Amino acid sequence: MIELATNCETFVLFPLGKKRFALPARQVSELARQDERQTFPHTTPLLTGVVLRRNQIVPVADIAPLLVGPEAPERKFYLVINRQTKGKSSRTAVPVTGDCELANAERLPVTGKLPPYVCGLLSLHDEIVEVLDFERLMAAEVRA
Amino acid sequence: MRISQALPRLGSSTRAKETMILFWVGGFSFAVAATAVDEIREVTGLQEFPSRLAKVTHTLERQGRHYFVVDAARHFRLMAADSTRLMVLRNSPVAVIVDAIDRMQEIQSIHALPEGFHGEERIWYRGLTLLKGKVVPVVRPDTFLTKAEITLLNAALRAKASMKALGAMA
């Protein structure tokens, strides 16, 4: 018999090197293979270019160096995230290093000293996964 | 794994045919409305003009008018390369040094710059256009120099002319 926790949410777990992170599944619109990334001059931190997805120009935010340092392995997929920026809907593609997974889990409060963009923790078997607040993550980079 | 959810309708685009001049700076391709360009010429006949703006180091005198020459690589914060062409802008005392002119091309639409971009590119670009699957930023010609910068440069130009006149009298 499967026991369901009462406050379970669905998360997308994604790897960045040896570590996994989580985003609420409602924020994620798709996982796609790396398309050709194109770039042009700009000054927005974290954004490394754009990709064309379903006739849309989607900015690419490479958060791996921020989360796991400059030695992050090659990114193989894009996680496309729905965002609300200044009241407008937009999408951002986040390169990840491997296959993603859906997980139902209870979001635990943050304990200890963690960066402000960590908005919860998931306890999964022998692994603690940080849940990311994507907007705060992007804003933290802007402030840095 | 593929996760599919209803996608919000995103990204506005303006549909109108417009002729663009495509040019290269620092290995990147840019587009500017052909109507904004008065002349494309070689980079010759420039006068040195030290100014407070790092991107303006020369002027051009053409048909009795002075043009402030903007280094597009510095404007877009790119590495300097071999600049071979000067685009003289229309209705503006600005000429822009670029690496090369690619071609003229009619575009069908301009897509709004995605909301995720919030840096100087929001000032530099009208939006993005797609040319055979390649994303090309469409430049706002009036942002190479702001009105305030032109005022400042005009004052410096007048001061330089006065100094020259005084030198000639002495």
Most residues in contact, chain pair and counts: A-B, 39 and 33 residues
How many runs of DSSP E, i.e. beta strands of chain A?
Answer: 10
Secondary-structure class of chain A: mainly beta
Order of helices and strands of chain B: EEEEEEHEEEHEEH
Structural class of chain B: alpha+beta
Roughly how much helix do the residues of chain B carry, as a percent range? 10-25%
Distance between the termini of chain A: 48 Å
Query: Biggest sheet of chain B, strands in spatial order?
Result: 3-7-8-6-5-4
Give an overview in words:
The complex is a heterodimer of chains A (144) and B (170). Chain A is mostly beta strands and 144 residues long. Chain A has two helices and ten strands, in the order E-E-E-E-E-H-E-E-E-E-E-H. Chain A is globular. The mean pLDDT of chain A is 87. Chain B is of the alpha+beta class and 170 residues long. Chain B contains three helices and eleven strands. Chain B has helices at 72-75, 121-124, 147-169, and strands at residues 13-25, 28-33, 37-42, 46-48, 56-62, 65-71, 85-89, 94-98, 100-111, 125-131, 134-139. Chain B is elongated and about 60 Å long. Residues 1-11 of chain B have low confidence and may be disordered.
